[in-house]
Amino acid sequence: MSELHIGLLAIGCMLAFIYFGMHIGIALIATSFVGVWLIRSPEVAARFVAAAANDAIRDYLFGVIPLFVLMGMLVSVSGVGRDTFDVFQWLMRRIRGGLGLATVAANAVFAAITGISIASASVFTKVAVPEMIRHGYTARFSVGVVAGSSVLGMLIPPSLLMIIYGVLAEESIGRMFIAGIVPGILIALGFAVLIVGMAWFWPHKVGTPEALAGLGGGAQETPLSATIKFVPILLLITLVLGGLYGGFFTPTEAGAVGAAGALVIALVRRRLTWRKLWQVLVETGYVSVSVLFLIIAAMLYSRMLALTGMPGAVTESITGMGLGPWGFIFLYVLIVIAMGCIIDSVSIMLIMLPIVLPIARAFGMDVVWFGVVTVVAVEIGLLTPPFGVSCYTVKSALNDPRIGIRDIFAGTFPFVVMMTFVLILLISFPALSTWLAYL
């Protein structure tokens, strides 16, 4: 059996293990270990695993992951999400479909201080869905808006997926953050246009005439109270993103400053008890260790593939097929979206990027632009059945038997269509993703 055949067998076994329920990290490590064993020897395979574990996350740059996760968790418990929604609910109270617009706007701002779509979905399911239903919006539209707009947390910086991509592609995380700004704004604006369009042309799918007329909602706010609620959010965004883009902080330092700022906000608001602080720290540890373990597994998997010659062989095959760069990117996006129907976003990137990045580079594609395309395609997978992590997060946080998972998937379908349209724009005009990153 040739080394290339071993690589193909390893990929097939790894996908089979994941399909039958094995954890993605364990599947990557097990198949990589066996693959190296078959190519070299058990002793080399053992040293291979040890070296990958030692080299993968020893750089201080990886401190950005637990720090941004901690910031997101602290922001969630401090009530910033609810205040953000209240402010935008008040600002858009007279616009047709205003509560839907408020949810998208609040999610976009919340994404800029968390970077985790699951956190956004969980927070706004509890905050926005009951409020929208109470004011006459349909349940399907309400959960669809929350689940759809929650994916903004994976694109608008700081983004956990951007961090993982930057690590795997050996690209600047700060540059990846900047590249996500314009695409994130485009998707948010696309969602806003979609909601207004649905409110005008398909009002029966959105809510009652009173709800669409903007009656009620946010009436209890005043300009002063709205400003007071929004100041902490604005300060935190300015502190983290302003310092990062202004060159004052590295991504890791920005994460540390953001976590400290979120802690101060939670303490000032008296939302953080010792019990909640412990829960935040434990949850941060769970998320961070899971992500870092997956990065170690992906590093081992990537090295095993390189040892088999798989990336080079696949690159030669793809280029030899005559697909060209556009044919390759079309096929890649279709595969990523299809994989999103089965496995989660991080796993997709860990499996696909070691194989496709050499091909993208061989075609002369910009790695930053390719990363933005990858993240948006992966985000679409967060909303597609049967897996749809964001949809299941909304269902879990809602805890309402009257709203089934099918209602949530149906509610998110228009947002999947809009994201697909924006993805086509980003593929057709790479400068939308890169012009800020290279300023």
Structure commentary:
This protein is an all-alpha fold and 439 residues long. The protein has one domain (61-295, 311-434). 77% of the residues lie in helices and 0% in strands. It has helices at 3-19, 24-39, 42-56, 64-77, 80-91, 98-114, 117-134, 139-150, 160-169, 173-179, 181-201, 209-212, 223-245, 251-268, 274-308, 310-320, 324-340, 345-362, 367-381, 389-398, 405-428, 431-434. Helix 6 (98-114) packs antiparallel against helix 7 (117-134), helix 8 (139-150) packs across helix 21 (405-428) and helix 16 (310-320) packs across helix 18 (345-362). The longest helix is centred in the middle third of the chain and has 35 residues, at 274-308. The model has no long low-confidence stretch (mean pLDDT 80).
Note the main attributes of this structure.
439 residues, mainly alpha, globular
Oligomer: single chain
Number of domains: 1
Q: What is the global morphology?
A: globular
- List segments where confidence is low: pLDDT < 50 over at least 5 consecutive residues: none
Number of E strands: 0
Helix content: over 70%
Helix and strand string, N-terminal first? HHHHHHHHHHHHHHHHHHHHHH
Describe how the helices and strands are arranged:
Layout: H1 3-19, H2 24-39, H3 42-56, H4 64-77, H5 80-91, H6 98-114, H7 117-134, H8 139-150, H9 160-169, H10 173-179, H11 181-201, H12 209-212, H13 223-245, H14 251-268, H15 274-308, H16 310-320, H17 324-340, H18 345-362, H19 367-381, H20 389-398, H21 405-428, H22 431-434
Helix pairs in contact: 1-2, 1-15, 2-3, 2-15, 3-15, 4-14, 4-15, 5-6, 5-13, 6-7, 6-8, 6-11, 6-13, 7-8, 7-20, 8-20, 8-21, 9-18, 9-19, 11-21, 13-14, 15-18, 16-18, 17-18, 17-19, 18-19, 19-21, 20-21
